[in-house]
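Moderator note: this is an archived Q&A kept for reference. The question asked for a predicted structure of one protein chain; the sequence and the answer are reproduced below.
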Amino acid sequence: MRPPFRNAHRVFEEITQRNGFILNSACSSLCYRSMLNTYAYYEHPVEFHGEKSNVISWTSKISSLVKQNQSESAVGLFKMMLMTEQRPNYVTILSVIRAIGGLGLEDVMRVMCGTVIKMGFELEVSVVTALIRFYSDYDMGIVWKIFNQTPIKDLVLWSAMVSACVKSGQYAKAFNIFRAMQYDGVKPNHVSIISILPGCANVGALLVGKEIHGFSIKRMFHPLTNVQNSLVDMYAKCRNFKASMLVFDGILEKDLISWMTVIRGCIENDCPIEAFKVFSRMQFSCFRTDEKIVLDLIEAIIQADEHKFGLAFHCFLLKNGLLAFVSIGTALFQMYAKFGDLESATFVFDQLHEKDYISWSAMISVHARSKRPYNALDTFKQMQSTDERPNEITFVSLLQACSSMGAQEPGESIQAHATKAGYLSNAFLSSALIDLYCKFGRINQGRAIFNEIPTKDLVCWSSMINGYGLNGRGVEALETFSNMLACGVKPNEVVFISVLSACSHCGLEHEGWSCFSSMEQKYGIVPKLAHYACMVDLLSRRGNVEGALQFVNEMPMEPDKRIWGALLAGCRSTHGSIEIAELVAEHLIGLDPQNMSYYVILSNLYAEQGRWEDVESLRKLVDEKELKKETGYSMVEAE
């Protein structure tokens, strides 16, 4: 009878061929390269063959290759080891599993599992643990099967299983495993604590987190920096920011992860100014600024809505040479764009030396959402002159730009580009196309795209409902909404905005009130300002300006520009009460004093009623404030 390792090699060879490891071009390339790299590892063939004396030599070479990130060569060397009838031990298997894990080859790992079983290593706990760690990224069904079939479980295996459950979002099962290991007589260590705490953080299980905190103190794990870092993160994500800061302040030996975690916690708890205070402490502690921390701080500036902070931080980044990171430069120009400073955003973008597809796409998106969306098309042309290829998000932004400009031909051209790139199956791209054609009044073409989407998500449904509303087809909008519900898709806030907007545009007052009432009563969605704005618009369009004002006064929140703007538009279109118009304009000017359009609307209403003295007074007020109408733009499509 042939020895087991000969059988193992035969199984490994046959299964890899059957699974495409040899025949598949990608995997074939891997095998070929790994064999070449393996031979190249040795200076002379004689030296290579001289190293084949025992399993320790093989394992040492394979392990060395893995540590040097030469995973392909490690897999090739293992295959050669089997060919020479040298039986590997469990340490060899562990190294090969790590190599395959580094390459992310799930099919090859399945073959390796067969080899493990064939060679009798399926009961080796360290091998089982390595397999669980690998499959936690791919298939939790296999992970549970491996775990349940292992009769003897050690502390490392239990901890790995807890970590796998947390990583895959199976938080309840992670808590159960954590308890089960203790019932089994296995005492958790600091790694177990670090594995379970993210589960508490992600589901907001504060009480469980506190219990584990107490357990870590009892077992004397709490002085460890990595345990304290996990506790800081847990308390922050559970919205107990005070406790998070207390744990952080108690860390005697803070590392970079400590600072990174607490700064992130500040942002998650809406304390952006506190994030900068922590950052100042970090600077005094002589820690070098990390790329991720910079990105978080830019987010904190946006959250604080502090343009001056952004300018100061920009100077800091220049001084410390951190704008060499493309990701930081991209985040910085996005920050300027959110503050409405498009000039600074464009300047930062132009200064980026090595633009990647993310930075190009982000800048196209910035232009598409700006008052000059045609710049998005110019930026796209520049991108095409580089080696960077657009992705789905790039095309979505370009379609939004075309939609804003009313540019049909460029929109169709972008659709052709996206089709050629094979992105039309993307739901966001399909939704953008629906929006585009519906805004052009080509509702049938929009519907055709909608019907071709195999699996419709909320974005697709919302786009189609909104498209019908824009084209005055409110009944079809409500039918589409009913079809969505019939498909088992639960509406969200955005869908209700589309539905209410359609009711408003089409004068469906009864249906609008019915949908508005059902939001909270039936679906548990609390109406926000956008939903109230739709209802104000609905009442105003029907000429009920007084009712709309009463509705605004009874709102459970402070009305914003959208609310007052809808009411003022109603006064203008229905020639409603001039007193209400004056009251509404006063609120709008208080919220947005530099916007001249409110003065223009009010002036026109005065003129319609022959109140020329009031028209003149408004004109003088505008002159005193030195207000100017915004310069418009137009785009003429060339044949």
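Archived answer notes: The CA atoms of residues 122 and 128 lie 7 Å apart.
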